[in-house]
Specification:
28% helix, elongated, alpha+beta, 7-stranded antiparallel beta sheet, 41 helices
């Protein structure tokens, strides 16, 4: 409602004086402020806040009258009455300045656009020069305790128990005195004639205030009793006064009245504020509510505030400011919602934690429209708060502080569109939450951080483009934390300050403001203000009843000064702001309130009548226009005692009659009811449909009271069939009592409603924020709250005194929001309206925070019931649990709620919702493993270890099967924790690394691999695959270290057994890709395990099936043979090889650039020597050069298979480096094409050659799959699983791999079964290729010599123990016993197959030898380290 902003300002008096001010009193319009010190009366102006005139009493007069004590203004601001200590009333005339009309005038800098002034314009923006003239003093012969200004009279109470009525003109015969003893006091007016009366002998009035709407005086007597005195006639005379008093209160200290809500507030010595209303029938004082600090929020200070010193209602009566004897300020809304308190948090503590003394206040009052609070601090505070100037302190009048506030537009202009957006206005700027930014042009949102806002009006806020300008409405209203701050146009503000009304349209794109005269409007999309072009038109009207947007028009209820006529005007937004573009309707009475419903206007007038008008937008001219027609007048004078009591008036489609069914949503469009907020009472008038049905002119039934203590009402004219509960409800803000919703109840499935079932139900619920807007469809309340930032560390105290920045934190206003749906669902369940709750919940199930709503509902009920000291006869938790089972998120809701609740309440929770073991099994059946894991933590705490181990094993196996690796890692940790007795404190969850998007498996993440390529410089018939396997310190590495340390632990063996079982399962089902991921993610020692399983599960029974599975698993296309491929189009070996080098360079350029290669780039090699490609080709085969080699070396005709091998050969050269490739696309764009192009021009490829190249590239699978397959190939090579090497060699079409395997089968170490298996497998593949996959035929033809050799060779079987490391031998390392640590035990020794390099046989320099340098270079070219993290 009201929010503190920025730091307070300090006002300094330019006059030298040793006296401190102690009292401030505003004039009726709050443009002038009378400030008193002991012998001085000063008048200050509001804007600018400057001293206008000061009257200093002479020493002689001062000794006669005594020091000044308090002041009071006459209603028309023409006189000031000052009470002096010796019982004198001093009357001062406030006289205009004559010749020197203005004390301060605005000065415009040279070159700036001068303001065209009109007569009367200047007075509005200048501080006037006034003078004070003292009239004859009036001696009342007793100390004066309080004064109250009436229209023509001044009411003064004195310490001798008299009430004096003085005329303002001060003539002698105007004095009347009434003795308080002669006023009868009783508990109510009915018992006044013969009931108990107070004995008032020797009692006087300590404080009193006049209430206009109650027509009486609220008084505090000096013995602490509270009373209310009512004049029975128009004139106040002794025999015409009647008093009522409040029972059981004897500690009253001060009083203030709220005219709008007819409330009388009394401050008490206990520190609380009692708020009374006057019963209209009996006239007795009824306690409405209390304003007091609660121990819950202010445990330190709630009992230490001292007595209430002052209460001040804001000018619009929506908030009250309270201060106590011990200091501090506190702000409450009308019905007790607490907004601000300076006795806690950053106001009370410095940034280093030390406590500040609360600011002690001697007097305070609100400024114009409530934008400022003028505060005078007491003497000791003044010394503390003094300005740090060079001048000595006694020459400066310090101690007037001005606190800045911004307030909600609903306080004065509660129209419908203001209820759907949060709009706050300060004295010179507007804060708003925008609607959907997609409606704005890009970057058109203004969102300075609240900390950076210039609060003194030093300039407009900076503009920032919206970071989420593409988001949708709901996320915008929620997630957009900053305000849009719009600076009000300075030209309009200068002449029309203060801003009285503000309105925003429903889309949140247009804002209108109205000040003292005229109005202006602003468009968010153009960021421009529109002001009246003709300033005379602006100054000739003033907005009286508010303004509202409708259909592109601003609807204004205003007073026309020229015609002296109240008018209703509609101005088109898109045209110039001018009366020629307005539609004017004359009104017969002053308008107090204005609102719009669809195409209807509702006006509330000063004669207590309501007028309904219809509006129509017309397009008959060049500009759209609007026509307004009076529909109906309804007199409310019988029900409304005073027009000022009506807080808001609304037209709505809400009604109670039996017409509410699910079949008739179209009736929601009709304006069926008028809702009035009459001083906090919500009154509804429904249309009377019993008589003749005249469209839109039906009479209204007598009013019905819906609710009490209502501050704001929200309703909407939109309709949504899916969310009728929310859109046809009425939302009320009730201060301390929170919110209420008047919810419609619909029969389900079009059934007839029960006769006993009410059509609507009022449900109360508490929220933690002050509501400013309701998002109906989104089930959200939007609000704002004060936040503070401490800056005292920036400026330390100087000379023992603190600056304002040190005394006060910097205040900002934050946007807040709150979900309310769980409160409503709970209230419906409490009332056995589960069917309605289900309908409502189902309509909101699509909301993103619906799961949170369910959790909150369970949590709140659980906390209340499980911690209750008394047994609950009818617990709600089972009902809530049953309700949640209707939704699919039941299992998550329960477990999330349990995890956020303390362990002591779990038994109560699961007694209601079911056994956690059953819920765990439900999660497994529903494949919801993450939720099951959460239930496992519940089980771990509630069950014995054996039960949690059993369930954890179930979950672990399921997670392995589904490839949920993160969950698997957690489960390994969990199982280990159970085994090692860490039940009470399970180890913290490791930070899981997300798999990086490398070109291959995530295998390389935890490995450092050194690989030597076999393609370039391999000794014939030997492998050159070196791989050192080392585990880094990643999560899985730590895990394996723990395993090796605790290898004797049964849990580790148990986990290892499950991992091995899963690996066996994957390999049996030929799921190599999953096996690779499994190994990489969980740190499983794949090579050691494969060595162990070499002769068991790592065999390949069906090569064809395995090949098909790999094709499917790795998305690898089956090879296709192009037509006309009988002979290759390439005629020149050099040309072909260079081309393949280029293509392969481009295919994995990233990998070549990123890996630590010492090789000469292929291009350079091709350019440097003509025979390098022959060297590389020599690596292909162990046998004497075949026909292919011969053909190549002689450049003769080539056979079909000659096309394939160099390409695959070169592919292998680049493949392992490709593991670092971060993308699956080639990087030809990085400049590799240029190198290719240089040679392309020389090669001059034909169309058929290009076709062959493209066909060969099409036969390759994704780059990532290629890297993965190559990695697996190396793993199987090292583990000695030769059958799998053959299968992967086939899919990659790597002739070298097949040749190497076949050559190795020659050695006597290989079991006979393996040789047989490879031979029969290759024959099976050949048979399958002949019938089903001809694309493999060219490759099989290429490796036919090896196949032939296999068939012819007879293999001897020898024992594995014969394998010993030798100069030209490889070692098939058997795993040592000991499980996973077998590989680690080898230390740095090479694992698996490792063969030293020998120079290529049959190839060399022209003299037949290989120079040493070249041999070394060849070695270096092939060996490179690929280290990845």
């Amino acid at each position: 409602m009201y929010f503190l902003t920025g730091w307070p300002r300090r006002l300094l008096c330019p006059l030298k004086s040793e006296e401190e001010p102690f009292h401030v009193q505003p004039s009726s319009q709050r443009f002038y402020f009378a400030v008193l010190s002991e012998t001085q009366l000063s008048v200050w102006f509001s804007r600018p806040s400057v001293l206008i005139v000061s009257y200093i009493e002479s020493a002689k007069a001062s000794s006669q009258f005594g020091f000044y004590q308090q002041a009071e203004w006459k209603q028309d601001d023409s006189m000031i009455a000052v009470a002096a200590a010796n019982g004198y009333i001093l009357l001062f005339d406030v006289v205009g300045g004559g010749e020197d009309k203005y004390l301060y005038e605005p000065v415009y800098s040279k070159g700036s656009r001068g303001v065209k002034v009109t007569p009367g314009y200047k007075e509005e923006q200048c501080a006037p020069a006034l003078s004070l003239e003292m009239k004859r003093p009036i001696d009342l012969e007793a100390p004066i305790t309080s004064m109250q200004s009436l229209q023509e009279d001044l009411l003064v109470s004195t310490a001798d128990g008299y009430l004096h009525i003085l005329h303002w003109d001060g003539v002698s015969n105007g004095r009347k005195a009434i003795s308080l003893c002669s006023v009868p006091f009783s508990l109510d007016l009915q018992s006044a004639r013969g009931g108990l009366c107070l004995d008032l002998k020797g009692v006087y009035i300590r404080d009193m205030t006049y209430c206009v709407t109650l027509d009486g005086f609220a008084v505090v007597l000096d013995d602490g009793r509270l009373g209310f005195i009512t004049p029975l006639a128009n004139r106040i005379t002794a025999d015409q006064l009647q008093g009522v008093w409040a029972a059981d209160v004897t500690d009253g200290t001060c009083v203030a009245v709220n005219n709008k809500y007819r409330l009388v507030t009394f401050g008490c010595a206990s520190g609380s504020v009692l708020v009374y209303s006057i019963d209209t029938t009996t006239g007795s004082m009824q306690l409405s509510h209390k304003l007091e600090l609660t121990p819950k929020h202010y445990p330190d200070v709630c009992n230490k505030t001292g007595a209430v010193k002052l209460i001040r209602w804001s000018p619009d009566y929506s908030v009250a400011m309270v201060t106590w004897e011990c200091g501090g300020l506190s702000l409450w809304s009308v019905f007790g919602a607490h907004l601000i308190c300076t006795l806690g948090e950053d106001f009370a503590y410095r940034s280093d934690g030390t406590k500040k003394d609360p600011i002690n206040i001697s007097s305070m009052c609100w400024g114009a429209e409530g934008y400022h609070l003028w505060v005078i601090t007491s003497r000791e505070e003044t010394e503390l708060v003094e300005n740090m100037e060079e001048a000595p302190p006694q020459t400066q009048q310090a101690g007037i502080l001005q606190f800045n506030f911004i307030k909600s537009a609903l306080t004065v202009n509660p129209c419908t569109s203001n209820q759907e957006q949060v709009l706050l206005h300060g004295e010179d700027r507007l804060y708003l939450t925008c609607g959907d930014p997609t409606q704005l042009p890009s970057g058109s949102s203004e969102s300075p951080h609240p900390h950076n806002l210039p609060h003194g009006g030093e300039g407009s806020p900076t503009h920032h483009p919206s970071p989420n300008s593409t988001s949708q409405g709901l996320s915008t209203l929620l997630g957009y934390k900053h305000w849009h701050v719009v600076q009000i146009h300075s030209t309009y503000l200068e002449s029309n300050w203060p801003i009285r009304f503000a309105a925003i349209d429903t889309a949140g794109q247009c804002i209108a403001v109205a000040g003292r005269r005229g109005f202006a409007h602003y468009c968010m999309s153009t960021r421009k203000w529109k002001l009246f072009g003709n300033i005379t038109q602006e100054q000739n009207m003033t907005v009286t009843g508010g303004l509202v947007w409708w259909n592109g028009f601003v609807v204004v209820a205003c007073y026309n000064f020229i015609d002296r006529q109240e008018e209703l005007r509609l101005y088109l937004r898109s045209s110039n702001l001018d009366n020629t573009f307005s539609s004017v309707t004359k009104l017969h009475s002053d308008t107090l309130l204005l609102n719009v419903f669809r195409d209807m206007i509702i006006l509330f007038r000063a004669d207590c009548s309501i007028c309904l008008y219809s509006m129509e937008r017309r397009h008959d001219g060049p500009n759209p226009s609007a026509s307004v027609e009076l529909l109906q007048e309804v007199s409310m004078s019988r029900y409304i005692p005073h027009p000022a009591l009506v807080v808001s008036v609304t037209l709505t489609s809400v009604r109670t009659e039996t017409g509410i069914t699910l079949k008739a949503p179209q009736q929601a469009c009709m304006a069926d009811s008028i809702i009035l907020n009459l001083a906090g009472q919500l009154i509804m008038l429904q249309r009377d449909r019993s008589g003749p049905q005249l469209q839109e002119k039906l009479p209204f039934c007598p009013p019905v009271v819906l609710a009490q203590y209502v501050e704001n009402v929200w309703t909407t004219c939109r309709s949504n069939r899916k969310k009728r509960h929310l859109l046809e409800a009425l939302w009320l803000s009730c201060g301390e009592a929170g919110m209420k919703v008047w919810l419609p109840l619909f029969p389900r499935d079009h059934r007839k409603p029960h006769s006993f079932l009410s059509r609507r139900i009022m449900l109360p619920f508490h929220i933690n924020i002050y509501p400013l807007a309701v998002l109906f469809e989104d089930a959200l309340v939007l609000g704002a709250s004060n936040e503070t930032v401490v800056y005292d560390s920036l400026q330390g105290p100087r000379e023992g005194r603190e600056s304002l920045e040190g005394l006060f934190p910097y205040c900002t206003v934050e946007r807040t929001s709150q979900i309310y749906l769980h409160h409503i669902l709970r209230q419906l369940l409490v009332r056995n309206l589960g069917e309605q709750a289900l309908l409502l919940a189902q309509s909101c199930a699509a909301l993103p925070y619906f799961p949170h709503v369910m959790e909150l509902m369970v949590h709140v009920v659980l906390e209340e019931e499980a911690t209750s000291r008394e047994p609950i006869p009818d617990p709600l938790l089972p009902t809530v649990a049953k309700f949640i089972t209707e939704f699919p998120l039941f299992l998550q809701t329960i477990v999330h709620c349990a995890r956020k609740t303390e362990f002591a309440l779990w038994n109560y929770l699961f007694a209601a919702v079911g056994n956690p073991k059953d819920l765990f099994e439900e999660c497994l059946m529903a494949q919801d493993l993450d939720t099951a894991a959460s239930y496992l933590i519940i089980l771990q705490n509630m069950e014995v270890p054996a039960v949690s181990r059993q369930h954890a094993t179930l979950l672990f196996n399921t997670a392995l099967e589904q490839g949920k690796w993160d969950l698997c890692r957690h489960m390994i940790r969990f199982l280990k924790a159970i085994g090692s007795g860490e039940m009470e404190t399970p180890p913290p969850t490791p930070t899981t690394q997300e798999p990086s998007s490398t070109g291959g498996f995530e295998f390389f993440r935890n490995r450092s691999i050194s690989l030597s390529q076999s393609a370039d410089s391999i000794a014939a018939g030997k492998f050159n695959l070196q791989k050192t396997f080392s585990m880094p310190s990643g999560p899985s590495a730590k895990g394996s270290e723990r395993w090796s340390k605790d290898s004797d632990c049964a849990e580790n063996m148990y986990i290892d057994m499950m991992l091995r079982r899963h690996a066996r399962h994957l390999l049996e089902h030929v799921r190599l890709k999953e096996l690779g991921c499994f190994s990489a993610q969980l740190g499983f020692e794949l090579i050691g395990w494969l060595c162990h399983e070499r002769t068991r599960v790592a065999r390949v029974d069906d090569f064809v099936m395995a090949l098909k599975c790999l094709h499917k698993d790795f998305l690898w296309p089956f090879p296709v043979t192009p037509a006309g491929s009988i002979s290759s189009p390439f005629k020149n070996g050099h040309r072909r090889t260079v081309l393949s080098q280029h293509l392969l360079k481009s295919q994995s350029a990233d990998s070549l650039l990123n890996s630590d290669m010492d090789t000469v780039p292929p291009q350079a090699a091709a350019r440097n020597s003509n025979h390098t490609w022959l060297d590389r080709l020599g690596a292909l085969g162990p046998t004497e050069p075949t026909e292919m080699d011969t053909a190549l070396s002689h450049g003769g005709p080539q056979t079909q298979e000659a096309f394939l091998s160099p390409l695959t050969n070169k592919t292998e050269e680049c493949s392992i480096g490709s593991a670092t490739d971060l993308t699956e696309t080639s990087s030809m764009v990085d400049g590799d094409w240029t190198m290719v192009d240089e040679n392309f021009s020389a090669l001059s490829l034909t169309h058929s050659e290009l076709e062959h190249i493209s066909m060969e590239l099409a036969n390759k699978g994704p780059h990532k799959s290629q890297v993965q397959l190559r990695y697996l190939l190396h793993v199987f090579m090292e583990a000695g699983c030769l059958e799998w090497c053959v299968v992967i060699g086939l899919i990659l079409r790597e002739a070298t791999v097949i040749k190497q395997v076949v050559n190795f089968l020659d050695s006597p170490e290989v079991p006979h079964e393996t040789v047989q298996s490879v031979r029969s497998g290759l024959l099976g593949v050949e048979a399958w290729a002949s019938t089903d996959c001809l694309g493999y035929k060219p490759f099989l033809n290429l490796i036919r010599p090896q196949l032939q050799k296999l068939i012819e060779t007879s293999v001897e079987q020898i024992q594995p123990e014969a394998f010993l490391p030798g100069a030209s031998n490889s070692k098939l390392a058997e795993p040592q016993p000991g499980g996973p640590s077998a590989e680690d035990s080898r230390g740095p020794a090479l694992l698996g197959l490792a063969l030293p390099l020998e120079p290529p046989r049959g190839l060399g320099t022209e003299d037949g030898g290989v120079p040493e340098e070249q041999e070394e270079q060849a070695v270096d070219e092939g060996v490179y380290d690929c280290t990845l993290s």
